[in-house]
Write a structure and sequence with these properties.
Number of helices: 16
CATH superfamily of the largest domain: Toll/interleukin-1 receptor homology (TIR) domain
Shape: globular
Helix content: 25-40%
CATH class of the largest domain: Alpha Beta
CATH topology of the largest domain: Rossmann fold
Distance between the termini: 48 Å
Number of domains: 3
Strand content: 15-25%
């Protein structure tokens, strides 16, 4: 069944706005080196969401490359994929300049993943200045103050940027945000069919006394837990004493289906480490501050170790980098938890497999609601990701385990491989072989960018290996945090 975009109030399907014959609702402007695959996905999904949309994609619609401005004239809005190389390309700059000259609405699309060509706003500005200084004259561009690097940069960020995502649940939000920009101003709120923010997740009562242990030594954890409870219409109660009725421990596990359907409106939590045995889980809220605060981080690490000693499941929650306030929330790359000048995960916890479970990903802006529903699923004991992501993760875990066993890697490296395969949206069929090659070369930086160049795979250090015959995607893979010697 097609995943149509609908109006929230009426439930009616969204229809494509009327345009002139031969016109386009949106022009997808991108550089081929890292934009072709995302733009193909965007076009296909937009057409599924709103049949009748006219979406310009060069490989489908470009007939005359010498007249790019004509295509801009015929379009309502221009989506610009702000990736590495775009602002150094003559044709891309022609499209950007034509967009600004004609006053077309710009939809800036950014990729938070630098390993895939993502750029920050400052980096975009630097590339615009560089190309203006070094290339405008040889390209035959006349100087125009309204089209200076500064003017283009200002026009580009006049509208709130939209974040590109590869994980299914977040990609739904991205596509809905893009589609909303193509509708008439003041339109009703929309939703996408089968989007997880539409799911009502029931928070069951704790199986023990508390749902979760939340450490005071974990900066931001209390505030995040309060935010979560509020987003789900729940009451959060902290107390050192008993909050929920104590339950007799049974030798058999409770019926999870019955438990999931029990009405509960309260999240019970404790700060008291002495009550860790009475908690269903321990919250591990991962930000750039988690392991970088010296003695306070050591204390938190001690508490995590105590939870692991007691076989208390760890509820891993990771603030990712991206738009919508993630810098304020101290979002960071997962790689920093393995190697960071300011402090990293204690080696003992890595050896014990602290990251054996996949962390719930938290994002900002429009994507925050989706993150909170994913966290609610984790609280409810259900799968926090969709079936497709779960199947991909299962395959990646199986292959990474084979790599670990073959190369005799410790559990910390195994966990890193598992996180990488799922969290970076890579082609899992080739991940294991690529990582095996990296490790077999005894490379051990905290992050290795693998790129296919002239039929070979090359690392950021310039060392090359033979091309993996099973790899079919011209994409990059990040080996996150594999620090073990081979």
């Amino acid at each position: 069944m097609a995943r149509r975009l609908c109006y929230a109030k009426s439930g009616k399907r969204v229809a494509a706005p009327a345009i002139d014959a031969g016109g386009y609702h949106v022009f997808l402007s991108h550089v081929w080196s890292n934009g072709q695959d995302p733009m193909r996905v965007i076009k296909q999904r937009l057409l599924e969401m709103i049949p009748g949309l006219s979406v310009f994609l060069d490989v489908d619609d470009l007939k005359d490359i010498s007249n790019l401005g004509m295509y801009i004239t015929r379009t309502r809005a221009v989506l610009i994929f702000c990736s590495d190389g775009y602002f150094l390309s003559k044709n891309c700059i022609i499209e950007l300049r034509a967009t600004v000259t004609q006053g077309k609405p710009i939809i800036p699309l950014v990729d938070p993943d630098a390993s895939r060509g993502g750029l920050t706003e400052d980096q975009v500005g630097e590339q615009l200045i560089r190309v203006e200084t070094n290339s405008y004259a040889k390209w035959g561009f006349d100087y125009d103050d309204t089209l200076s690097a500064k003017a283009l940069h200002k026009a580009l960020w006049a509208n709130e940027p939209i974040e590109w995502n590869r994980i299914g649940a977040f990609q739904d939000v991205t596509l809905r945000c893009i589609a909303d920009r193509l509708l008439p101003e003041g339109h009703q709120r929309t939703y996408l069919r089968r989007e997880i923010i539409n799911e009502k997740i029931v928070c069951p009562p704790p199986t023990k006394r508390y749902h979760v242990y939340c450490s005071r030594n974990n900066p931001g954890a209390i505030e995040m837990l309060k935010e979560f409870a509020k987003s789900q219409g729940l009451t959060l109660k902290f107390a050192p004493s008993r909050l929920a009725p104590a339950r007799r421990r049974s030798s058999s596990r409770p019926d999870e289906q019955i438990r999931a359907n029990v009405q509960n409106t309260t999240v019970y939590a404790t700060h008291d480490i002495e009550q860790i045995d009475e908690c269903d889980s321990m919250l591990v809220y991962l930000t750039s501050r988690t392991w970088t605060r010296g003695d306070a981080s050591c204390m938190f690490g001690f508490e995590v170790g105590r939870a692991m000693d007691a076989d208390i499941p760890l509820l891993l929650v990771h603030e990712m980098i991206g738009v919508g306030g993630q810098e304020t929330r101290c979002g960071c790359e997962f790689a920093s938890f393995f190697s960071c000048d300011d402090g990293a995960t204690p080696p003992e916890l890595l050896r014990r497999g602290i990251y054996a479970q996949i962390a719930v990903a938290l994002k900002g802006g429009e994507w925050r609601k989706t993150s909170m529903v994913m966290l609610a699923k984790a609280f409810a004991g259900t799968d926090a990701v969709g079936k497709g992501d779960a199947n991909e993760l299962k395959q990646a875990q199986a292959m990474s385990k084979e790599v670990q066993q073959e190369l005799r890697l410790p559990a910390s490296a195994h966990a890193a491989v598992r996180i990488t395969a799922r969290g970076r949206g890579v082609e899992v069929s080739s991940t294991a072989k690529l990582l095996a090659w990296v490790l077999s070369k005894q490379l051990s930086p905290s992050r290795l960018a693998l790129r296919r160049i002239s039929g070979e795979w090359t690392t950021s250090e310039g060392q090359r290996g033979s091309r993996d015959s099973s790899a079919t995607e011209a994409t990059s893979v990040s080996a996150v945090g594999v620090e073990s010697s081979v």
